[in-house]
Write a structure and sequence with these properties.
By secondary structure, this protein is of the alpha/beta class. The chain contains 12 helices and 27 strands. The chain folds into 4 domains: 10-115 and 251-312, FAD/NAD(P)-binding domain (3-Layer(bba) Sandwich); 137-247, FAD/NAD(P)-binding domain; 333-423, FAD/NAD-linked reductase, C-terminal dimerisation domain (Enolase-like, domain 1, 2-Layer Sandwich); 426-485, Orthogonal Bundle (Arc Repressor Mutant, subunit A). A hairpin with a 4-residue loop joins β14 and β15 (237-239). α1 packs parallel to α7 (297-312) and α10 (435-443) packs across α12 (466-481). It binds flavin-adenine dinucleotide (FAD).
């Protein structure tokens, strides 16, 4: 770390105490535990300590209480967290940040981690002219939304979810599990339009119908009538005591824009995560990097780690170069994983293998280009999901028996061993934890999932890797218990 002896710590101010701002503070505290080189002040509008927003649909489903999803608060002299405080203006010339309590914070480096908010479509009754949710309407972005939703919807009550993307489908699953009668409305031709193809969506919609959720795709909402329900463009009214809006998000970019910083749909950043003002950085859902990644936690956490290394001076040249997103639907009883190219089956050099089993509610599609996995949709194929995601990450050659691969059956090992030249195969993508990291944690004495989580952070993001970590643990226990000789 390069700092001048005796110099006062560099003042870093973070706007936003969400998942990414909090991770930045945690990483900085890890790299500079005594706060000798940096002092981080985090300001956040929400009154709570930071929490795992990804698990909010689990709170709706009743799988977690709000306390169970809290994130660790760094307890070090180098970090100060001010909850219930909103940044109102940024003065890049004098390098100060104005707060809603009338004070101004000076900074050497500023980190914008302001996240995003729910986008409310311009449908009568959904939002008031000032942007506040209409009567009986809520988004699902923060803990306050969760509490509002659970207060609006009692068991047996009809609820309409507007938006059939991942978030809407997770909310619908949680609500039906709590005994509500749920309809989902999606304006695209099929649900999860960005992540999966139409045949998969059809089977997924049938799975939802079997759970009691009515899915209405390619239908536009015309009007929300409080106390009655949602009127569609074909005149039908779906009964609803509550309307949950999950129709996309909009980056919180106003602070940057008003300060003259370059903003498009997000705050524009380069590989150093610097904005058009070199002293101002942006990470997480509010940032727009050429390699994408906004809207998912793994890229945000990776950005937080890269920026912490840069600003503490631990690795001043660290760069963030983009994301390879993978989507997992967190809906009890449904195993759905999708990643990469899934909509390009007509491309000449693309080979696709598909298994469609509508009766069994299963569907798998594998896209291969030049012997490498470039995309997959896996509904009801959890074993294949882990293997294919690893092949996707590492770029290792695909085994010849594609069908066996999709079914999760043993296949002839690829010619080139995995992990040799390419990136390591990840088990926990949210936290970039590889199989080797987990094996090392085991060697260091971690014998339970909780102990592995404590050492590596695996399973503490979206929770989608719990099964894989358990399987690795069982394998290692088996090996340890096996008689020698
Ligand atoms: C229900 C749900 C499920 C999700 N599931 C997944 C999933 O399975 N996988 C996945 O990868 N991603 C998922 N996501 C997305 C993931 O949660 C986000 O990518 C992540 O939270 C982004 O973190 P962030 O810190 O950038 O933004 P946020 O978590 O939104 O935090 C931003 C914070 O900044 C605060 N803030 C904003 N403006 C100011 C200001 N001016 N002053 C002070 N504070 C301010 C906000 O109040 C907020 O607390 C999900 C999101 C939701 C809502």
């Amino acid at each position: 770390m390069s700092t001048v002896q005796g110099a006062s710590p560099r003042q870093i101010v973070v706007v936003g105490n969400g998942m990414v701002g909090a991770r930045f503070a945690e990483e900085t505290a890890r790299l500079d535990p005594a706060g000798e080189h940096t002092h981080v002040t985090v300001v956040g509008t929400e009154h709570h300590h930071a929490y795992n927003r990804v698990l909010l649909s689990g709170v709706v489903a009743g799988d977690y209480t709000p306390d169970q999803i809290r994130l660790p608060v760094p307890d070090t002299p180098g970090v100060t967290v001010r909850t219930g405080t909103t940044a109102t203006a940024l003065d890049t010339e004098n390098r100060t940040l104005a707060l809603d309590d009338g004070t101004h914070l000076p900074y050497d480096e500023l980190v914008l981690a302001t996240g995003a908010r729910a986008a409310f479509p311009p449908v009568t009754g959904v939002a008031a002219p000032d942007g506040a949710p209409g009567e009986g309407v809520t988004a699902l972005r923060d803990l306050a939304d969760c509490q509002r939703l659970l207060a609006l919807a009692r068991p047996g009550a009809p609820v309409v979810v507007l938006g059939g993307g991942i978030l809407g489908l997770e909310a619908a699953r949680g609500l039906v599990g709590r005994g509500m009668r749920v309809s989902v409305v999606e304006s695209s031709p099929w649900i999860m339009r960005r992540q999966i193809d139409q045949p998969a969506a059809r089977i997924l919609a049938e799975r939802y119908a079997a759970m009691g959720v009515a899915v209405h795709s390619w239908r536009v909402a015309a009007r929300w009538i409080p106390g009655t329900g949602l009127e569609l463009d074909d005149g039908r009214i779906l009964p609803g005591d509550a309307l949950v809006v999950t129709a996309g998000v909009r980056g919180n970019t106003e602070l940057a824009k008003d300060a003259g910083i370059e903003v498009e749909h997000g705050i524009v950043v380069d590989d150093r995560l610097a904005t058009s003002d070199a002293r101002v950085h942006a990470i997480g859902d509010c940032a727009q990097h050429p390699g994408g990644g906004a809207g998912l936690i793994q890229p945000g956490w990776e950005q937080a780690a890269v920026l912490a290394r840069r600003l503490t001076g631990t690795a001043p040249n660290a760069l963030y170069t983009g994301a390879r997103p993978l989507t997992r639907l967190k809906a009890q009883g449904i195993e759905l994983t999708a990643f990469g190219q899934v909509h390009e089956e007509d491309a000449e050099d693309l080979e696709t293998v598909t298994i469609s089993d509508p009766y069994g509610g299963r569907y798998a599609k594998l896209s291969v280009r030049q012997e490498k996995v470039v995309g997959a949709v896996l509904l009801g194929f959890p074993e294949a999901a882990a293997t294919l995601a690893q092949l996707y990450d590492t770029g290792a050659p695909v085994p010849a028996d594609r069908l066996a691969l999709l079914q999760g059956l043993p296949t002839t090992a690829p010619d080139q061993p995995q992990d040799q030249d390419g990136p390591p195969s990840l088990v926990c993508r949210c936290n970039a934890v590889s199989r080797t990291d987990i094996e090392q944690a085991w060697l260091d004495g971690a014998r339970t999932r909780e102990a592995i989580a404590e050492r590596t952070r695996a399973t503490t993001g979206c929770g989608g890797c719990v099964r894989d970590v358990q399987a690795l643990l069982s394998g290692m226990r088996g090996q340890a218990d096996a008689p020698v000789g």
